[in-house]
């Protein structure tokens, strides 16, 4: 199984221009750390373009990846809160994200569902289903035109500082949408950390989710937490059962990339050396083939 | 600032033969990872040794001098030690006191200046309950130790603690020395250079919401009395002993506070690495190297 890393975890803009690690540099850093694949954030590509166009940047990113033998295994679409993510302006960004994904030679675009605030507390399933299905359905012409698969990601929700359930918090809900939208263009991105945040409320664990998703699981956001914070920690730095998770991936015959989604920049001092050290350590700690071997030993 | 690591967490799996790590192997791992110092805990096999051997025995002296030599061979200084933990009812007895005498002598033989001995924690004295009682018994406990500390030229560093509240679903709550003011009370009353403070950053995070303290605030309150550290992180719920940045600690502020009080000691990590080392020694070495890189107080202030 290949291992990937999100470049977004490395290139967040600190506010100080000379400190910014550009998307191009971040992709190089993912390659330097020894990964097979990279998850590229479309909303980072459009930032600070300088004198070049978006197309030129995409070409540069693709050239780097080709040269370094790095597969762009998935992209991450623009994201926003409900009131923003349901506007026409935002939908235009999503349409463009499909095109960017194709420009990068990538097949899978990860899209966040929307969580109507009135549905917090697991309310009004029919309404949140309709809002999400209608919104995602609008991507179909672009997905077909550019031959891209939309991977719907499981999220978490919060109200008054406490975690609660809303749209996409269980895999059954995601599968319901995929069945409605059509599995030829729609699949699932399992975010292990988000799922773990919901586990105390739903009882569904990460291995349960993998087994339930089966063939519909195409890409992953792999990270860990203690169920009390969306920490985006390395696997083993939280409460997810990684041995059982790997057994579940083997069981369903998962053929995608084990793509880590770590926010390395969030807390440690923002320095290239430390980011590279973190990325390298995560690469070694979370080699999916080693993790599978260990899981089979019990 | 020099950076240290407790040895104990490296040995947690020593009951599994394939994962057994000897003292020398552990020192070697710490050296490769770039650590400068070691915190030597009298736990597990080390607790057994110190309990089984009288400090007057030649073998006792030879053992600890040998450990010290091994550490020095790997360019490590044993900066501090940690006495065995014990239930409150037994902590005031003569048997435990004898063990503490041995630990203090061993500390000297290991070349360390500091030993951390937990203050007494009466189970009923949670939060600020029974403060007068716990102050009375702890002062008595420390005063009994003072001549031994003087004899071996070692400093006991009083550590801030917490305790699970049985009436609140075992929530971790303040108890002995959770407030810096309580530790300062002991130092003032003991009035001896044989006592200092060990600030445990993780414990302070656990009790700080109740007492109004933060690790950085506590560092400023303790100032020159702060001699050693137990550095670790958590989410203010469980005593996770996670590396810095893997919890709610504000590491920039903590590093700035240490600088502000002109802390001259070691940035000593106290981590339960076993949590992440369920597979092999190579993984442990990589983890140690990674943790050493991110746990650089000179870098944290940036």
Which structural class fits the helix and strand makeup of chain A? Answer: alpha/beta
Number of helices of chain A: 14
Task: Write down the overall geometry of chain B.
Answer: globular
The largest sheet of chain B, given as strand count, sense and whether it forms a barrel, is: 8 strands, parallel
The percentage helix of chain B is 40-55%
Number of strands of chain B: 10
How does the overall form of chain A come out from the CA principal axes?
globular
Termini gap of chain B: 15 Å
Q: What string, H for helix and E for strand, traces the elements of chain B in order?
A: EHEHHEHHEHEEEHEHHEHEHH
- Flag low-confidence runs of chain A: none
Quickly count the helices of chain B. Answer: 12
The count of DSSP E runs of length 2 or more, i.e. the number of strands of chain A, is: 10
**Strand content bin of chain B:** 5-15%
Q: What portion of residues of chain A belong to β-strands?
A: 5-15%
User: Separation of termini of chain A?
Assistant: 19 Å
Q: Could you list the spans of chain B in which at least 5 consecutive residues all have pLDDT below 50? A: none
Question: What share of the residues of chain A lie within helices?
Answer: 40-55%
Main β-sheet, spatial strand arrangement of chain A = 9-8-5-4-3-2-1-10
